[in-house]
Amino acid sequence: MQQLQFINIANQLPGLPVREEGTTQAAGLLADIIVHPGNGTVLGMIVRTTHGELRGLATRRLQISDGGIVISLGTVFDPDHLNGPLTGGAKACGELIGISVVTEEGKLLGRISEVHLAPESMQVVYRVSSSRLQQFFDHGFFIAGDIVHAYSRTGARLIVPARTKELHATPLLSGKINPRWKSLVSNARPAGR
CA 158, CA 73: separation in Å to the nearest integer? Predict the structure, then answer.
């Protein structure tokens, strides 16, 4: 099994400087990460430039360090219009946190309270909490981003398989995932903020 370090997107990444691979000048500060909610991969990011403008950057790879984020730049896009390589994408902090997670049978499992990123694989994991109290005390469960069947932007929900809680959920965010990614291994430390 591969060791991965998960990063809480909303708590640990906004405000970090972003620069393109091979350059020393920052493109701006990270404002949000664009993920594909249906397969759990990172598509790009939104950066606030030194002039205060928001710019979208599609990326194929990123490295996160103490000094900031280094990306392999794909294309520049308008952050208000996710099209081209960003079609189907959603803003992790701006759109996904707070939306409902519902099984394909219509059973409400809770809401996304956190989105975590494994930078090496560019995969995301969602924390699902059924109440604000659960969210406050770091309770709920985690699901890998690639188990999602559909994302309804207008209905503000993720649709997941019928037995997600039994088959795909884990109470702990682990530093390990299996090679096929779909199931998290829950033998590590509890997720913190």
Answer: 28
Give yes or no for residue 5 having a pLDDT over 80: no
pLDDT at 21 over 60: yes
Query: The tokens 């959920």 sit on which residue?
Result: 169
pLDDT, tens digit, for every residue of 47-88? 998 888 888 888 877 788 767 888 877 777 677 777 666 778
Cα–Cα separations (whole angstroms), residue 159 to 37, 38, 42, 53, 133:
10, 9, 19, 33, 23
Q: What is the largest CA-CA distance in the chain?
A: 50
Whole-number pLDDT of residue 160: 94
Three-class SS of the chain: CEECCCEEHHHHCCCCEEEECCCCCEEEEEEEEEEECCCCEEEEEEEECCCCCEEEEEEEEEEEECCEEEEEEEEEECCCCCCHHHCCCEEHHHHHCCCEEEECCCCEEEEEEEEEEECCCCEEEEEEECCHHHHHCCCCEEEEHHHCCEEECCCCEEEECCCHHHHCCECCCCCEECCCCCCECCCCCCCCC
Q: What is the pTM of this model?
A: 0.81
- Residue 9 CA to residue 77 CA, distance in Å, equals 21
Q: Residue 153 corresponds to which tokens in the numbers above?
A: 């932007």
